[in-house]
# Entry
Amino acid sequence: MYNDFYGLSTFPFNLTPDARFFFESSVHRKAMSYLIYGLHQAEGFVVISGEVGAGKTTLVENLLSTLESRFVVAKIVTTKLAGDDLLYMVAHGFGIGQENLAKGSLLKRIDDFVVSQHRAGRRALLIVDEAQNLSLPALEELRMLSNITIGKSTALQSFLLGQPQFQAMLSNPELDQLRQRVTVAYHLGPLNETETRSYIEHRLRVANWKGDPALTEDCFLAVYRFTDGVPRRINTLCSRLLLYGFLETLHELSGAVVEKVGIDLQREMAFVKPENRHDSAYVDAAASLPEISQRVAHLERTVDKQKRVIEQLIALVARAFQSQRP
# Structure
C-alpha cells in the first residue's frame, strides 16, 4: 500500500524484530558492547532488561547475525513455565528429541548434546526472551544447566532478556546462586529526542527512502512526545503515520499530522496521554483503570470513615453541651 505510494522497498516500521533495521543509539551501542563482552566471557548469564518495546530482541538478533557458524543457538520465548516445562522448551530449541522422556533422561540428553557440540568446536548459546515470566523453579533449572562443564570450560551460556521487573526477581534470596553467575547485566533505556529522529530516518533509509514523504522538524518532535523514544512505540506510530499519508495522498508529514494520527491511535488502542506532560508516553488504559478504580474506592472508604468520625465527634459535643445545661 503505502510502500508503492512512497517508493519504499519494504515496510520500514514493522514490529517484528529485524537485524537489518538495527539502529546503534548510544544505549544500544553500550548494550551491544556488554553483550559482546559477555559472549567472550563464555560462561554464566548475560542479563538484558528494558521496557516493553525497548529493542532487547532486535539487539540480540543483531548480535546473532554477526556470529560465526561455531555457535549453536536456541531461542525460546517464555510464558509462565514450571521448571520441567522449561527443560522441554530448551530441548526443543536445540532440536533435541524428547519422546516423552522423564526429567532425568531429558537432562542427560541435553547434557550429552551440549558436551558433543563443545567437543566439535561449537558453543551452545541459549536465548531466553520474556524472562520475567519464568518461575523461580524454572530459573533454578537454568542455573543447573549452567553447571554443564568440560574441564574448566562452561559448555552452555544463557542470555536472559526481560522487562524491568525481572531485575526485581533476581534480587530474590532464593536466586542467590544464579545471581552470582551473572557476568553482565545491562538495562536498555529509551532513545533521546535527537536519536528518535535519527532512528526514524535510519529505518526509512534502509527501506530505500528518497525523501518522499518529507518529514518536517515538528513531525519528529511530535513523534518523540507521543512515544517517549521507545522504539516499538515509534514503529507503531510511524507505520500508522505513513498509512494515513497514503490515504490522504500527503507527500509532507508535519507535527499536526502526527498529532491527529497519534490521538486516533491512542483511542483505538485504549491508550491515554496524560494532559499535563509534554513528553507523554503511551499509558495502557486497560492496566491503569483498575488501579485508578482501586484508589478511588480507597479514597471513598477513607472519606466515609472520616465522615463517621466527624459525626461521632459532633454527637459527643452535642451531648456534652446538653449535660451542662441547667
Q: What stands out?
A: The longest helix spans residues 285-324. Residues 26-188 form a domain with the Rossmann fold fold (CATH 3.40.50.300). Residues 98 and 248 are 54 Å apart (CA to CA).
